[in-house]
Amino acid sequence: MHISVLLNECIENLNIKEDGIYVDATLGYAGHSSQILKRIARGCLFAFDQDGEAIEYSTKILDQINDNYEIINTNFVNIKDELNKRNVKGVDGILFDLGVSSPQLDEAERGFSFHNDAKLDMRMNQKQELSAYEVVNNYPKDKLIKIFYEYGEEKFSKSIAEAICKYRETKPIETTLELTEIIKSSVPEKYRRLHHPARKVFQAIRIEVNDELNVLQKALNDSLELLNPGGRLCVITFHSLEDRIVKNTFKEVTKENELYKGMPNIPDEYKAKYKLIGKFKPTKEELENNNRSRSAILRVIERI
Hints:
By secondary structure, the protein is an alpha/beta fold. Helix content is 45%, strand content 15%.
């Protein structure tokens, strides 16, 4: 079962108007989308997802609320182009929930989890070519080290990459548990006791397979441009790399022009076009009910 993280905080901070236009950039299993749709009797919701299963499931849920929505089957990197195609030039709120949805993690065959045995996959979009299998079996050692270190912040990146390269000389690495065992064998026992050694490496491979960080940066820039005055962008992140991108992007667009800093009459074209609304973390109660929310951070920004 998928439990939407920071649901109340998101809905509250979107400041939903019943005739507004809203975008859920990460539909998933419609947790956030269904709550938005209930509040827009005369508005419209556009929801993005590239996972066919999630779309099928969510359509049934949203149909029971009203028909003021459209699901767009593509990656949120195309948010601006797709809305432009529909003649939508401005929106009143956009939400990103960057966590992998629980059903994707729980369905062993998707290959996201290091707890279940499955083929190495990790593709959010099942139609794309690049999968975890190609990354693990075909990337050169130096590239694996770079990915594990930069995307996983894994301090044993070198020894893990070396172990993978040595193993695949004999046979391809085909399953998640096979990879997990190789990772375990290449880090010190003390480290294994403190952390699950596969967590960061699996995160790094998933980011590489789905090009998540580049996609996020472009989508954030486009989303900020799409906001109407008073419109808000809410982004939930689950690891420091994503959060850093969101934090720095928000910081950049909300800072005053250095030339006019502190002056009483700043020309309009030099004023910041956005203001920070806040940063939110799960409550104690939410953490108790949903362990997967533990690393979540919601950041909110508003167009002035």
